[in-house]
What we know:
Elements: E1 9-12, E2 15-18, H1 19-34, H2 39-46, H3 50-60, E3 68-72, H4 78-87, E4 92-95, H5 98-105, H6 109-123, E5 128-134, H7 135-145, E6 149-155, H8 167-179, H9 196-209
Parallel strand pairs: 3-4, 3-5, 5-6
Antiparallel strand pairs: 1-2
Helix pairs in contact: 1-2, 2-3, 4-8, 6-9
Amino acid sequence: MRGRRALRFYRIGEKVISRDKLIDAIDAVLADREAGATQEEAARAAGVTRSVVSFIETLGEVRRGPRVAVVGFPVANGDEVRAVADRHAVDFVLILSQSERESIESGSPVNVFNRLLETLATLRDFDTVVLMASDWRIATIERILGSEVVGIPLGTTPLREDVKVDVVELDRLLSGIMSEPITPRAPQRAKPRRVGGALRDAASEIAGRWSPSKRS
């Protein structure tokens, strides 16, 4: 039937194994762990041993390290920059060309301002923000976000033309950032930081709002 997921079964000796049941169980375990459950708690909820949960995490691990965001504008080689960020499993990527930025800026000033505030609030929850922009914008956002900003100047403000990012240098930078141990920061506000899936979901939603096709 259209839209329905095709079921897949495996015959292993006398057992019939459902791939969908297995995937759903793994999704539930990972969701519990992402929400803050211990391996033991996630294992009990799934009816398995803690070692099974540990094995699932090891099998699917992409990287360890800090929560990293990559933001850049106006960027000429956006696809190359996104590809580098994807290779490093960066948590949040927002890259805009000059034309995309102008398209967004032509929308409602109130909506653009609100999106900017939401983005800055979300970026505060990241351990490191790699920012590719003009010198003035980097300095300004550093004052807002603090020491977690790593700036890559693209030129002097105002920048009204796309600038090509050195993706080899960006790759080296991200490699260094990802290998650094996480240093806990002192609380900067009463509101608890979003972690795991909550942070990723918020970041994904914010990035979607900056799409020129969704401007208001």
